[in-house]
Amino acid sequence: MKENNNKLASNSYVNLFINRHQHAPTYSIITHGCQMNEHDSEKIKTLLENMGFEQSDEKLDADFIIFNTCLVRENAEMKVYGQLGALKNLKRENPDMLIAVCGCMMQTGPARDIIREKYPQVDIVFGVNNINSLPYLIDRHLSSGKLVVDIERKDDIDEDIAIKRENEYVGYVNIMTGCNNFCTYCIVPYARGREQSRSVESILSEVKRMVDQGYKDITLLGQNVNSYGKTLENPVTFTELLTKVNDVEGLERLRFLTSHPKDISDELINAMGKLDKVCENIHLPFQAGSNSVLERMHRKYTKESYLEKIEKLKKSVQGITFSTDIIVGFPGETEEDFQDTLDVVRKVGYEQAFTFKYNRRPGTKADLFEDQVDEDVKQDRLERLLDVAYPIFYEKNKSYLGTIQEVLIEGESKNNPEVMTGRTRTFKLVNVKCDKSYIGKLVNTKIVDFNSFALTGEMVD
Ligand code: 5AD
Ligand code: SF4
Fold first, then answer.
1. Residue 185 near ligand 1, beta carbon < 6 Å
2. Candidates 34, 185, 186: which one to mutate for ligand 2, based on the most atoms within 8 Å of Cβ?
3. What is the 366 CA–ligand 1 centroid distance (Å)?
4. 171 DSSP β-pair partners
5. Ligand 1: which atom is nearest the Cα of residue 34?
6. What angle do CA 35, 36, 40 make, to 5 degrees?
7. Which residues are 412's β-sheet partners?
8. Which residue minimizes the CA distance to atom 1 of ligand 2?
9. Which positions of the chain have pLDDT values less than 50?
10. Distance (Å, rounded) from C-alpha 217 to C-alpha 317?
11. DSSP bridge pairs for 217
């Protein structure tokens, strides 16, 4: 069925386009949101390139533009509507142009109706579980000339196709989808559904295939990777999976994202210290420091148990670095609660933090809480949080000065083609002056400079 779909569409839209324009149609994917969306966009890229589309250099100028959307905060939603509006004229000039919208915004809430009513320039809408249907949906749109919507089918991506990733050396592997946690602020479980784990065999075969192709740094991806394997017919723990992936010959670095503090087990903490490829870095969102806020967020851990896990990680994994997500201004958050958040930031010493003002999401429990915090209080807390966090990031980066760091060179720097960028095992971004031939290589560098966001390294040996 999947193969037929691919053939159908590639025989129609792409060939028709080539006959008419004498060149292959171009595509562009505009991705909002998290790493899960970024990885879904790589799957879409794979399908389109297999059909004969070519990637456009311009994000908002292509024959097929796909918006992969996010629902986590309102501003990501607003951006999509703005960008869709801007395409109206382009579409008038290029009637063969196609526009599709997919991702979390299409799963729940009013966006589908808004698009149907206000954005007639959109041709195709599909959901997070319908990526594989895209070739077939293009075809359906071509034959009907109408908006085609597919969000119902649970049609997982074919796990055995080779995904074309954005980078040739560093990549994500999806190990699970969905989330069962229902944190009260979060829309993800409503958009992405319940937790479902992929089988160990298919994960391992994808990792092996990637390593054969030259991948060196792999991140296992899921909304809550620590609860991996619970829904499998023969349940497996995340630590067991991590150990098996660590054994894949030729792999250099292994990471995972995102972890939930309540599910980080001692078994995993010990394994992280022992498994040689598992990198010395973890993203561990704590969201808020106050126990009463954490309880109302439904996070199921306390400030004390979070800090205890951090201490265990520091002991077990030599040189481990931490990053986190923090929300300020959750309903009912008092100044005293907020001080607990600052206290955690000071105690852990994060290298990076993603900080957010609480944003009401219709459909979530916290949206119904009565004691919403005023916008100016949220803004003030966010600024005070950054005032505490930035000097810590700065000091952390300063501590790398003069050290020798192994960097995996990932590609050219966006600002200067004579400089390459890469990461340390601790996930620190390093700019290195070297030529392109080093892309994909592990090099030793001496850190000679830094700012709050990145380090500068010089090659040694
Ligand atoms: N408001 C603000 N931040 C949110 N996040 C999730 N939902 C919301 C919301 N309603 C943040 C959390 C999460 C990250 C991906 O986004 O910190 O970890
Ligand atoms: Fe959202 Fe909480 Fe699930 Fe993370 S663990 S995706 S914050 S519900």
1. yes
2. 186
3. 12
4. 218
5. 15
6. 115
7. 420
8. 186
9. 1-8, 10, 155, 157
10. 18
11. 170, 253
Residue to mutate (ligand 2; options 223, 260, 283; most atoms within 8 A of CB): 223
Q: How far is CA 279 from CA 130, 173, 273, 322, 367, in A?
A: 33, 16, 9, 11, 37
Q: Give the tens place of pLDDT for each residue, 322-379.
A: 999 999 999 999 999 999 999 999 999 999 999 999 999 999 999 999 999 999 999 9
User: Which atom of ligand 1 has the smallest separation from the CA of 360?
Assistant: 10
d(CA 312, CA 301): 15
**Backbone conformation region of residue 147, classed left if phi is above 0, alpha if psi is from -120 to 50, else beta:** beta
Residues 6+ apart with CB under 8 A from 424: 405, 406, 407, 430, 455
Measured from the CB, is residue 186 less than 6 Å from ligand 1?
Answer: yes
Would you list the DSSP string of 102-171? Answer: EEGGGTSSSHHHHHHHH-TT--EEE-TT-GGGHHHHHHHHHHH-S-EEE--------TTS----SSSSEE
Residue with the smallest CA separation from ligand 1 atom 14 is 325
Query: How far are the Cα atoms of 133, 343, 381, 383 from residue 387, in angstroms, in the given order?
Result: 47, 13, 10, 6
Tokens (6 digits) for 223: 């909304």
**Total Cβ atoms within 10 A of residue 376:** 9
Q: For residue 354, give the ligand nearest its CA.
A: 1
| Paired residues of 409 in beta bridges | 422
26 lines ligand 1 (CB under 6 A): no
Strand partners, 84: none
pLDDT at 158: 52
